[in-house]
Amino acid sequence: MYRRIKKVLGGDILKKRGKGIGVTFYGTGYGNGFPDVSRAYARLLEDGKVEILVGATEVGQGAKTVMVQIASETLNIPIEDVILVNEDTSKAPDAGTAAASRQTYNSGNAVKIACENLKDNILQEAKKILNVNSKIGLVCEKGSVYVKTYPSKKVSFKEIANINNNLKGEGVFIAHTTQMDENGQGAPYWPYTFAACAVEVEVDTETGEVTILRAKLVLDVGKAVNPTLVEGQIDGGFAMGVGYALMEDVGLKDGKMLNSSFEKYIIPTSLDIPNIEKVLIEYPEDTAPYGAKGIGEPVLLPVAPAILNAIYDAIGVRFYEIPVTCEKILLQLNKG
Amino acid sequence: MKIELNVNGKDYSIEIEEHLRLIDLLRDKLNLTGTKEGCGEGECGACTVIMDGRIVNSCLVMAFQAHKSKIITIEGVEDEDIKNAFIEEGAVQCGFCTPGMILAAKSLLDKNENPSEQDIREAISGNLCRCTGYNKIVSAIKKAAEIKRGGRNV
Predict the structure, then answer these.
(1) What is the CATH number of the domain that holds B133?
(2) Tens of pLDDT, residues A285-319
(3) What number is the ipTM of this complex?
(4) How many CA atoms within 13 Å lie on the side-chain side of A29?
(5) Smallest Cα–Cα separation from A71: which of A98, A57, A53, A45?
(6) Cβ–Cβ of A235/B122 closer than 8 Å?
(7) Which of A141, A164, B23, B39 is the most buried (most CB within 10 A)?
């Protein structure tokens, strides 16, 4: 670690710059022995489309998009042919909470298994219709099944559904989750997502204000099912990290929240967030649907440590408590 | 009391209570529920509407203050360029801030078809977003501006 003071515009020495990094790893799912099960059903509809029932809640993170993509990939059908029912508890089976960065990995696995089982049943039916001895030579493509070596021998999902209207598949995925021992040792989660964040900050030594000048975030996603959505998660997680590190404080006192409105509970605005250079590392995880690990929380975690390290690099003060507000910085600097 | 106003090109003459806020008039009386109430104290911008060409927090405007005014809510935004750019860039996550963001963007682009990134960040700085980290919203507004300047086919 080194310290450096850079002159900024107009030779103003009151603003000091520093760089910092943060590196984290984080388990997908509930972990530590808490039961973690996702269920999904897949069903062939009369019109040849496929209905996916999975209780994965969409809160903006993209579960609805990702589940449809996984089903579409597994059954090799267009996105438009996947009908997702995900927030109707009278129809969709329990897929756990949209929490613990678990929906893509856990419920994605359940959807994939359900679709594989449905595909198997569709092929079984197609085998009879196409009058071949085994499923092995059949190909599922764009809502049809055909014989690999004789492509004109073909039957559509719609035709199959008209012959058998009871083709279904169930998917149950039980995640690895074991309790740690009394010393905190063990194997609580699987898999782990790795993330690294680097930032350059400028600290105004007159006002205590910290500005994030540049940021880079590298994320080992396993596989990005939808890269745009992963980028959106990185942007969002980074902004939450900035708030966490520098601004956000509910101010609990005697069991009461002192900062219970946006007037006092400050979160970042568009002016507080820089553009972020994003790098997605795709090293597919064997147990994951198409290799995709959980990324929701991992994008947030390395941000605050990176910012606090950068502040230390800039002004030589090590903070052990967040948020590092302007007041706290000034207090430390004025200690002399 | 009775007020007259124009909302999304339609004239209304409505009986209101004096304590009614503009957001309540829009949501409860006119059933324009696209406008969201976030904090209810003018901090978050979720309730942003355009009033006589300026963006306002409709939670801080009393309904009677809107007498004789022209209001545009998210339902009245006919600008497909902005909406499409938000979709294409992935600028929507939970969506709660989106109506306000789009109105703030429209208000900016109505006045400035070639905004800098700083202009865009300032224009939406009164609109809080918890999910997106703003960057994709900023690129969506940049893209909408490009499309407006004729860059669609580039």
Answers:
(1) 1.10.150.120
(2) 999 999 999 999 999 999 999 999 999 999 999 99
(3) 0.95
(4) 29
(5) A53
(6) no
(7) B23
